[in-house]
Design brief:
By secondary structure, the protein is an all-alpha fold. It contains four helices and no strands.
Length: 139
């Protein structure tokens, strides 16, 4: 079975996914104006993707004998559109770093299913980071 360290890392990933699910959804609801209108649907789509990540990670963690957390990382919705997107980009950078660490840990433990799960999620997170980076250029 998985090490305590890997299970703890996976729970950090769940807490992060819960955080950004709420954060991005509330940003989607609060965005106003022309620029907000142009991106709010994309943000809602990303929030739903993040929720699906949390579910998939929780299912895997449960299978491995861990107990999925219900506590998100601190949520930072932001006040302005630029502040929101800067925070979102930073959160995606943190996810990319964490998920690379989880992939390496799973590889070392011979857990190919967890490794593949996080490689697939990493692809989404890199796309989200690219979306937020591109949006920052337009704000």
């Amino acid at each position: 079975m998985a090490s305590k360290e890997l299970l703890d890392l996976m729970n950090r990933a769940i807490a992060r996914e819960l955080q950004v699910t709420i954060q991005y959804m509330w940003q989607h609801v609060q965005w106003v104006g022309v620029k907000g209108f142009a991106v709010k649907d994309e943000l809602k789509k990303i929030a739903i993707t993040e929720m699906k990540h949390a579910e998939a990670i929780a299912e895997r963690l449960n299978y491995l004998g861990g107990k999925p957390t219900t506590k998100p990382e601190p949520i930072n919705v932001g006040e302005t559109l630029k502040e929101m997107i800067e925070q979102d980009k930073k959160d995606e950078e943190g996810a990319i770093k964490l998920y690379k660490e989880i992939i390496e840990k799973a590889r070392k433990e011979g857990d190919e299913v967890t490794r593949k799960l996080f490689e697939d999620i990493l692809t989404d997170e890199e796309e989200h980071h690219d979306t937020f980076s591109t949006l920052l250029e337009e704000i």
